[in-house]
Amino acid sequence: MTRPHGSGRKTALKDRPAIDPPAWFAEQANQADPSVYETFEREWPDCWRRAAELLDWEEAYDSVLDGEDGPPFEWFAGGTLNASYNCIDRHLPERKNQLALIWEGHGESRTYTYRELSREVNAVAAALRERGVEEDDVVTIYLPMVPELPVVMLACVRLGVVHNVVFAGFSSGALAERMERTGSELLVTCDGYYRRGSAVAQKNKADNARIAVEQDVSVVVLDRLGRDVHLGKDYYDYATLRDAHDGETVDPVPRDASDTLFRIYTSGTTGEPKAVDHTTGGYLAHVAWTSESVLDVKPTDTYWCSADIGWITGHSYIVYGPLALGTTTVLYNGTPDHPEKDRLWDIVERYAVDVFYTAPTAIRAFMKWGEEYPAQHDLSSLRLLGTVGEPIDERAWQWYREHIGGGEAPVVDTWWQTETGAILVATLPGVDAMKPGAAGKPLPGIETDVVDPAGEPVDRGEAGELVVTRPWPGMPRALRTGEDWGAASVHGDEWRYYPEDGATVDGDGYVTFLGRIDDAINVAGRRFSTMELESAIAGVEGVAETAVVGANHATTGTAVYAYVSPEGNCAEADLEARIEAAVEAAIGSVATPEAIIFTPDLPKTRSGKVMRRLLTAVANGDELGDTSALRNPEILGELQSATPDR
Ligand code: WTA
């Protein structure tokens, strides 16, 4: 493989070169059977029994899937189970003294064996029950990345209580909206926490949200700062509640496979938060199976997903998948560059992390900081690398494999969404060749297609919209029941789910994602995906990160504005010429950016997603609107003055 410097990538429409998984990886992989695709196809939907078999069921299910052709779909009907039992109790006979959690915080760290985790979860479950929480109630959790976050989640599900985790970095308004919509009457939060060395006043935000909602809310407060916070009426101290029940045991409440395990909100197309309810049986089976087959997680591993539990990635692949498989999962509370830019690699080395799962935006930041930071550490424990959250361009993929994976570790690019609950498209690293830049094939048992606006399949290599054409075990309640969710529909007599992602599929069935379909830019009647442009620009040596938006243009309708954050000491004039050449080579001069604007950073949400909406507003000279979700609002003024007057 040569890196496609300067010339940009070949375009998504051509087949990408494939890289076989190394033999040493396949030899030890959980999933190394090349016939797995055929077997799943032949046995569908019964193939998903294999996923269910990774769990312990209280009551065996009667059928794998009821309602194959259309909603309502019911996975594992008749089966009952408890997620807390599956993530903790069943591991105790074999590995009670093995670590379940490793927590790295701000100047402190803590570990929990499975036995210690069991003790915590039982005590907190007993305390919640005493506070009057009952099966199917919704408890809202507003905690940063501390061990008590998964403890409270598991305590809830032990009782059959639905948790509603709200990302700790959200505002009090966002918290209030999510509490009110669920009618949640109990909130678990903390006094505050440290971020980049300074304290965030979490309880203040929680107090404001509590006052803003209609229902009465009692609040359990975890003391993180040790500042002797005064707790008024309906406020309870976490440690006091926990200690009062220390040593008690609570029987896990058996739940129907289709009962809700948790609720999580995501951004819907309407601009209002959209509630996604995941199930106890189908979801847990799907996350366990993908943790095993895609992320190759083994009980003996130290596994680290660097996401925040406040997002779906953390729910599925920090808490439920890894713990269901009985592995050691790492929780990190902090940022990747504090105190130093080698923070993550220091953690990988210290704990000898086997599998590391992160987001392309983080990888692009690592590239920007330079390879000298990972080079300071022994990363040879890493066996497998994963990415999720957005398309990863070929250059970032190669950098990740080279500088983090020692040029050896396979990289799995995993495509999924809050709505899908678990991974749907990725390569199976013990079976499939990898194609950098393409996520991979739909997993065994998953069927997708790429269609045009009329819903008809496009030719191989043509861009279109991805559709999922069969139900999957991790599907959320609204899709199972067929209620109107705006994203599922019937085409002819075929049920489909529309994730709203643009994609192409190549001759081997590998899907390349082109970004959200609502991010398309139409220049002079030709539609370009922001991803396609970004991928071309990101392939240019000296570019650390880029985001492309459409700005109104008098003649072409829309013009391409490229915001580019360059690596260290790169001459901008030279870079500009090479970016133009790369776009021309990859797509054509019709797509050459109208403006290339250099910036030290892009506006990002706290989860690291680039806020294109704000860049579009900046490019158009419009009002910026709500900027409260930004992690770096200070960058906006700089961007406004750097953007050419129109
Ligand atoms: C995008 C995060 C390309 C996609 C798990 C999807 C990806 C949205 C990938 C869901 C990937 C996620 N390649 N795009 N590997 N993974 N996406 O709900 O647009 O926060 O629809 O779930 O992220 O984001 P969400």
From TrEMBL:
Residue ranges of domain Acetyl-coenzyme A synthetase N-terminal in the record? 36-87
Domain named AMP-dependent synthetase/ligase: residues:
91-472
Broad enzyme group: ligase
Q: Spell out the InterPro entries in the cross-references.
A: Ac_CoA_lig, ACAS_N, AMP-bd_C, AMP-bd_C_sf, AMP-dep_synth/lig_dom, ANL_N_sf
Renumbered to this chain, region (Disordered) spans 1-21, 623-646
- Single Gene Ontology MF annotation: acetate-CoA ligase activity
Question: Which EC number applies?
Answer: 6.2.1.1
Can you tell which superkingdom this protein's organism belongs to?
Answer: Archaea
Q: A single GO BP annotation from the record? A: acetyl-CoA biosynthetic process from acetate
Q: Which UniProt keywords apply?
A: ATP-binding, Ligase, Nucleotide-binding
What range(s) does the AMP-binding enzyme C-terminal domain occupy?
532-609
Keyword Ligase among record annotations: yes
- Tell me the protein family, please: Belongs to the ATP-dependent AMP-binding enzyme family.
Report the protein name in the record: Acetate--CoA ligase
**Which species is this record about?**
Haloarcula limicola
Gene designation: acs
